[in-house]
Amino acid sequence: MSYLKKFVLFWYRFLIGDDWVGAAIVIAGLIVTYGFLKVEIAAYWFLPLAVMFSLSLSLFRQARSKSG
Amino acid sequence: MKMHTLFLFLTTFLAAGVEVVEMVTIVLGVGMTRGWPATFGGAAAGLLTLTAVVAIFGHALTYIPISVLRAMVGILLLLFGLQWLRKGIWRLSQYGVKAYIKIEDDEEGTGSRTPRGRVDWTAFVLAFKGVLLEGLEVAFIAVTFGAATQNIHLAVLSAASAFIIVIAIAAIIQKALRNIPGHVIKFSVGLLLVTFGTFWSAEGLGVEWPGEDLSILGLLSLYVLFAFIWVPYLRKSQNSRLHKQEEGGLMSSQLG
Predict the structure, then answer these.
(1) Residue A53 belongs to domain spanning
(2) Are B82 and B194 in contact (CB under 8 A)?
(3) How far is CA B71 from CA B129, B164, B171, B205, in A?
(4) Domain count, chain A
(5) What is the CA radius of gyration of chain B?
(6) What is the pTM of this model?
(7) A6 domain residue, yes or no
(8) Is residue A11 part of a domain?
(9) Per-residue pLDDT reduced to its tens digit, A1-58
(10) Which of A33, A43, A55 comes nearest B82 by C-beta?
(11) At residue B61, what are phi and psi to the nearest 5 degrees?
(12) Helix, strand, coil abundance in chain A, percent, nearest 5
């Protein structure tokens, strides 16, 4: 495997792992937080909600797949 | 010692101490879950980079865009910590807190250790980023407090004292933490990474947290509460699944 491929794979596994949906929700949460800041709305509450939503969805899917 | 000198020492000590606690928490958590060689390597590399940056920039240190660095490190910790926390909650619902599972035996995805002789880059990167970011913040505190009071030497001495004392306490605590089950440590580290990750990434984007650094405790409490809502729910769903399987097995044996 080339070094570049290994390097990309390392960062993918490091940041995304086996749940790209969870990571995408958090990234979306960061973008929305930034949007709130741009229009001068208090934004500190949004990211923790996005994190908990992402985790809930991942855990729910995991529970369903293990019981299915 | 004059009153304002004592005040400068104490203020710098406390402010730097908070940052060093954050740094040590990450290094300790990563070291205990991923192993020490790569964690120490990452921390040492972070410390060397930090020393070089401080030596080169000196007073100009305050011009480094810390918010960009904070956002980058925060996003990295948040995304990585999310995987650990999810697996930590899952494991906790399976085993509870009393079962003793060694970290080496609790092998699943992100928690697995790298085979001997190979560098664990995950541990290296986490420790490096944690030390560099928090170390830079300690350096900022020393430089700004020192410059404001025109007593840079005392501010540096105070920050260095905070650094040494917190690390000494961490070394003592680390021995006591060895008796805690591996999956509980991983769950706790996941919680801390997600907490710091949320705090830094949002702060890096420009979010003003109510209560500033104190909101780290608020975030941690929120995530602990969240986890302890999920753990019993998952345990209940796993138990009902096992119950159904047992019933199914019993029925098929009766039919047979």
Answers:
(1) 17-67
(2) yes
(3) 12, 27, 29, 6
(4) 1
(5) 22
(6) 0.73
(7) no
(8) no
(9) 677 887 788 788 778 888 899 999 999 999 999 999 999 899 999 999 999 999 999 9
(10) A55
(11) -55, -35
(12) 80, 0, 20
Q: How near does any CA of chain A get to the CA of B160, in Å?
A: 32
**Integer Cα distance of A49 and A26 in angstroms:** 9
Instruction: Note whether A45 contacts B: Cβ–Cβ < 8 A.
Output: no
| Cα(B20)–Cα(A63) distance, integer angstroms | 38
Q: What tokens appear for A65 in the block?
A: 């797949």
The CA distance from A54 to B140, in Å, is 34
Write the CB contacts of A37 (distance below 8 Å, at least 6 apart in sequence). Answer: A43, B205, B206, B207
Which of chain B's residues have a Cβ under 8 Å away from the Cβ of A16? 79
Q: Are the C-beta atoms of B120 and B35 separated by less than 8 Å?
A: yes
* Angle, CA B116 vertex, CA B113 and CA B117 arms, to 5°: 125
For residue B15, count other CB atoms closer than 10 A to its CB.
Answer: 22
Cα B50 to Cα B44: distance, rounded to the nearest angstrom = 10
